[in-house]
From TrEMBL:
Segments for region (Disordered): 339-371
Superkingdom of the organism of origin: Eukaryota
Compositionally skewed regions (Basic residues) per UniProt: 350-361
Keyword annotations of the record: Methyltransferase, Multifunctional enzyme, Transferase
Name of the protein: eEF1A lysine and N-terminal methyltransferase
Family classification: Belongs to the methyltransferase superfamily.
Biological processes, Gene Ontology terms: methylation
Gene Ontology molecular functions: methyltransferase activity
Species for this entry: Engystomops pustulosus (Tungara frog)
Matching PANTHER family: EEF1A LYSINE AND N-TERMINAL METHYLTRANSFERASE (PTHR12176:SF78), SAM-DEPENDENT METHYLTRANSFERASE SUPERFAMILY PROTEIN (PTHR12176)
Amino acid sequence: MNERNASQRPNMTYQLMDATKTTFTDSHFQAVLDKGTLDAILTDTEAGTLETATKLLTEIGRVLQCGGRYICVSLAQAHVLEKLVTQFSQGGWMVRIHQVSESSSKQSGSQFPLPVFVFVMTKVKEMPGFPLVLEMMPDDEGGKSVRCGSTNELMDMVKERQRYALIRNRLNQNQGSPEVSLDLCDGVSGRTRYTFHVVDSPTIRPSHSNHFAIFIIPQGRETEWLFGSETGRRQLAGSVGFRRLLVVALHRDQQYDSMEAIQSELSAKVLELAPPGLPDNQQVPFLSAGGDIGVRTVQYRGRSEMSGEYVVEDVRGDGTSYFRRLIFLSNQNVVQSEARLLPSNTQSGQKKKRKDKKKQQKANDNLDPKTTHVMDKSYLCCEHHKAMISGLSLLHNPGVASEQHISVLVVGLGGGSLSLFIHDYFLGAQVEAVEIDSAVLDVACRWFGFSLDDRLKVHLADGLVHINDLAGKGIFILNLVCRDPDLKGKVIKTIHEVFPLIYVQKIEDEVNEILFCRPHSGQTHDISNIKETAGGLEKQLRRPGMLWDESFVLADMLKSVQIV
């Protein structure tokens, strides 16, 4: 090698020696380049192997000048990563890690599954009390490096990139695999900014223009079935007609200026998840529902001692309606309570002249959740709530709906919409709600228009205690959510021990099943007449001067009720 380079590179020499014990003087070099030697030496975590690696790194430190750099190319296997970061950080060196960018001309199918990293260790004088410099460098141009507070944090960032590379490789190798989800975090705060759901539809016949698309879920709609469930997203992917659809959820506490700004921010990152075979210079479309990024306004933040942190937020739903939601952050994909918002000038149930209808519709279209508003107390957000109301028609006396006295116990208050509906539409009802969490009651009163009176009371207690007070001729209505058929069978069997007669109504497209339980088997209703009875109840509830949700048809909620 010396002879081969003698003429063109006279100052370059090749020397044969032990890298762990060289003959160079101290501080001889300004830089040491390692293009794989450490990986070749540190093949395992045996004591002898680790000792050899320690000698190598110590020798590198000896021959480097202060301010010099050790530049190491590595696959950063777990034990190699730990050795590099730990040994040099303990010596007070600056540690910066770069990920080698992949060639844009490289075919997706031939990419090596593991990323390559370059470790840049800078030798500095040890200064007691001086903070460690541990940085993960950006993986794209214009990005910012991330300063880590500990070696574990730095190593975790490397491992995250390795996992991401393996996910990409899996997606490239098997396009029929189950849905893959991953979070894209803000480089400064570390908070999740986007959640990606990669949905493949291998049954769609490929064409030049249907390989890949991005679908942006409007803010506040990520909990809807179509966007918030794997089954729903598969249906969405099939309907838009792309072989791979990247469904993107936006997060609260993040600022999004426009669809164009999101497209600019994500354009490079989303292409990393494109399917193999995507034609060069293919324009990847960005899709959405409604053509914009939606509206989300966080109205309040709080913390419950029982359930943790929560938010109350106003969002725009499908179309022009606005909704207020209570969401516990421990389970952000589930809306705990929801109410529909109306303009404050809406007069409940007053008949409008025909010429005023367009004016009222315009008011709804322009509703801004930041302005004054009222709750639509005729609106029940959950189909199982509607089924529960319909089940009250199973009480023997249909006239109970209007003015005859009944007592109703609601276990679990939430935003209070179910309790308020019974109070407002069943004029003879004495409603008692049991809620175990005082924070929920506070939210209901402050943000969901809930209020108490002589016919509506709330007990802060365990609801199981109050269930024992059910009247002998009453009805127990239970919302059962159970995906395990064996467990569900055991639950129903246990309920049968107390309630011999149980009707069940399955909620379409949901796991929920509503059980209508009677304490005496002799209280059986003719199932063929149940829909007619429910229709009669609805007529009594639809009173002049009261709003009514036209989508709520009591008879339809009991169309497939059965006795179990």
